[in-house]
Amino acid sequence: MADPKGFLTTPRGLPKRRPVELRLQDWREVYQEQPLADLQKQAGRCMDCGIPFCHQGCPLGNLIPEWNDLIWRGETREAINRLHATNNFPEFTGRLCPAPCESACVVAIDGDAVTIKQVELRTVEEAWNAGTIVPLPPDRLSGKTVAVLGSGPAGLAAAQQLTRAGHTVAVYERADRVGGLLRYGIPEFKMEKGILDRRIAQMIGEGTRFRTSVEAGVDITGTQLRSRYDAVVIAVGATAARDLGVPGRELSGIYQAMEYLPWGNKEALHELDYESPISARGKRVIILGGGDTGADCLGTALRQGATSVKQLEIMSRPGEERPASQPWPIYPMLFRVAGAHEEGGERIYSVTTQAFLGNENNELVGIQIAEGTFIDGRFEVITGTEQIVEADLVLLAMGFTGPERSPLLTQLEVTFDERGNIKRDENFMSDTHGVFICGDAGRGQSLIVWAIAEGRSAAAGVDTFLLGPARLPVIISPSDRSLII
């Protein structure tokens, strides 16, 4: 193990966040760099448990005690090798994953968990800074070709695994740049896009080919894909946003979060030479949804100069202690303060939106809300609590219902399960021979760590389909519906 007494003598410590007044003036990441010596002490808190429950918490099966020990000892090169053995993109998960591994940490039974996520992030950043992360092209090519549709974390993981296995891989992305939601859904202040670009450069160096501004099913049909490639991987995500069908929904000024956030990222990256068509500048903003996407909208709106921001959530405010119904090592629902919540705005719980209100020009001017409570699983409005909240911009951040029912899915003749996701078998193959499904398109809206795990496992299924017995690691099967959310 690392420091035998580390979990007893060293308190949990995270890197400091930049001062709010400074970070609201730019789009840079929130956290400051933690000195390596301090991080090594944090890694030394790992107990190297006989049964490391952090593995149960991590869908990727990261070898957490091993690289904690290596970082504590200063063996950074070997630490990144152990980290990359199970995770293609630890710089993504180290910034964006909610760290279910930490909720399952044995130290967290009666204390503060090891800062696993931060050790992971610093391990990979040390490797990038040292120049030890380089392209790893295959020794020989298999002669097989694979099309990966979608360049989010699941598609990228599948593509990198398959390229390294010797297959010729082309990734199709309908947006103008690679990355999916990592590019235009995740705000710059949570992950600067240079982090994504350097990994894409590595993949190009390995031989992965990227085709941007190509909408599969329109610019290239499902029939053409199946005739050109030996296998097809669908990694299009669950981008069908949940809507709110209340009176006034047709008013101007109401947008889905994923209509709004891409414009914020373009603004942050100075990609616009004109005024963003959707901006919070000078507006009273209401965000419907209290999750991570809502927080992303909050931080973006504050940086754009919104006059006020309110984030509404239908659920009651979570507690700050693990509830009895969610015992260790389950990931608990707790009251959490993201960086964006520190920066401003107001969070309002246990309310529902009854109507959007507009003026004579059909422009949004406010919403009518009411307080309520859940009774037998149904939200019941408390009579007399109705009120009107002024608003110029409403952002719907209420999650996603599954993959878009696009022409592509019809052309590939895939079928859907009762949850609206694309059906696949234990090898991640759909009902259509040679067409594989991974990520949110098959699992439903989930975490980035699940997307990478699914991409890796789907790649193993594709490799077996093309060449026989699996040569790539299989992490999970689609039948594993464990909820770590």
Structure description:
33% of the residues lie in helices and 15% in strands. The chain is globular and about 65 Å long. The protein has 3 domains: 125 residues, Fumarate Reductase Iron-sulfur Protein, Chain B, domain 2, CATH 1.10.1060.10; 162 residues, FAD/NAD(P)-binding domain (3-Layer(bba) Sandwich), CATH 3.50.50.60; 156 residues, FAD/NAD(P)-binding domain, CATH 3.50.50. Helix 16 links the parallel strand 8 and strand 9. With 485 residues, the protein is α/β, with parallel strands linked by helices. The chain is built from 19 helices and 16 strands. The strands form 4 sheets. The protein has a 5-stranded parallel sheet, with helices on both faces.
Calculate Rg over CA atoms: 23 Å
Uncertain residue segments: 481-485
CATH architecture descriptor text of the largest domain: 3-Layer(bba) Sandwich
- Major sheet: 5 strands, parallel
User: How many DSSP H or I helices?
Assistant: 19
Q: Compute the average pLDDT.
A: 94
Distance between the termini: 29 Å
Q: Quick one: CATH superfamily of the largest domain? A: FAD/NAD(P)-binding domain
Strand content: 15-25%
* Helix content, binned percent: 25-40%
Annotated CATH topology of the largest domain = FAD/NAD(P)-binding domain
What general form does the structure show?
globular
Oligomer: single chain
What topology does this entry show?
Blueprint: H1 6-9, H2 20-23, H3 36-43, H4 54-57, H5 64-73, H6 76-84, H7 90-96, H8 100-103, H9 116-130, E1 145-149, H10 153-164, E2 168-172, H11 181-184, H12 193-206, E3 209-211, H13 222-228, E4 231-234, E5 240-241, E6 254-256, H14 257-268, E7 284-288, H15 292-304, E8 308-313, H16 339-343, E9 346-349, E10 351-358, E11 364-375, E12 378-381, E13 387-390, E14 393-396, E15 400-402, H17 407-411, E16 435-437, H18 440-443, H19 448-467
Parallel strand pairs: 1-2, 1-4, 2-3, 4-16, 6-14, 7-8, 7-14, 8-9
Antiparallel strand pairs: 5-15, 10-11, 11-12, 11-13
Helix pairs in contact: 3-5, 3-9, 5-6, 5-9, 6-9, 7-9, 10-19, 14-15
